[in-house]
Amino acid sequence: MRKHIILFFSALLFLFACNNDKDAKGVLGRDEMVNLLVDVHLVDGSLLNQPNGDSLYRNGTGRYFYVFKQHHTDSAQFRKSMAYYVSHPDVMIPMYDDIAKILQAKSDSINALVAKDNEITRRRMERLQKKTQKGKQDSSSDKMKDDAKKIQLNLIDKERRMRMSQPLPNGKNIPRPVLNHFKRGQ
């Protein structure tokens, strides 16, 4: 009886030892998975910015399918790959370090573009204010004020569109540029 128990546990050990090679079949490679997870987290972030919290099913499934199609995979292979990498944390942790770096770089580039656009708008506003202060009280100064107000509104709309098109990753406290000084003038 003792020989049978030893044989049984030896066979179990052998089967579990060979199971790791089966898990690796059909799993996305590390770099492919990093790129896919970056896009999945961007979709997650864009869904968090949706005004309706229950719109995940309506809006989310199409976005996820588009990401999977873009990476030439499907949800089943993605789930299998995630299960594999989660069961191998020694591989998954460095992957998420790379993902965080990529998302941070994207966020920094968006913030730099917004800052550049804000600087251009600020200079335009200063030029318009200087022109209005030179003593032109006729209808052209009213037109410049209207133009300045349009520029302010346009800047606020640009900022909102940029926030919606390039969401930030979940769980990261990355500061976004806030334009409170333009909102006072409305």
Description:
This protein has one domain. The protein starts with a helix and ends with a helix. The protein has seven helices and no strands. It is mainly alpha-helical. Keywords: Signal. This is DUF4296 domain-containing protein.
Label the overall shape: elongated
Biggest beta-sheet profile: none
How many β-strand runs? Answer: 0
What proportion of the residues is helical, as a percent range?
over 70%
User: Measured on Cα atoms, how large is the radius of gyration?
Assistant: 27 Å
β-strand amount: under 5%
- Residue stretches low in confidence (pLDDT < 50, at least 5 long) are 171-186
SSE order, as H and E?
A: HHHHHHH
- Helix/strand/pairing category: mainly alpha
Number of individual domains? 1
Q: If helices are DSSP runs of H or I spanning 4 or more residues, what is the number of helices?
A: 7
Q: What distance separates the N and C termini?
A: 87 Å
Summed over residues and divided by their number, the pLDDT gives a mean of 75
Outline of this structure?
This protein has 186 residues and is mainly alpha-helical. It has helices at 2-24, 30-48, 56-70, 75-86, 89-133, 139-165, 180-183.
SSE inventory with pairings:
Layout: H1 2-24, H2 30-48, H3 56-70, H4 75-86, H5 89-133, H6 139-165, H7 180-183
Helix pairs in contact: 2-3, 2-5, 5-6
Region (Disordered): 127-186
Pfam families: DUF4296
Biased composition (Basic and acidic residues): 127-162
List keywords for this structure.
single chain; 186 residues; mainly alpha; signal; DUF4296; DUF4296 domain-containing protein
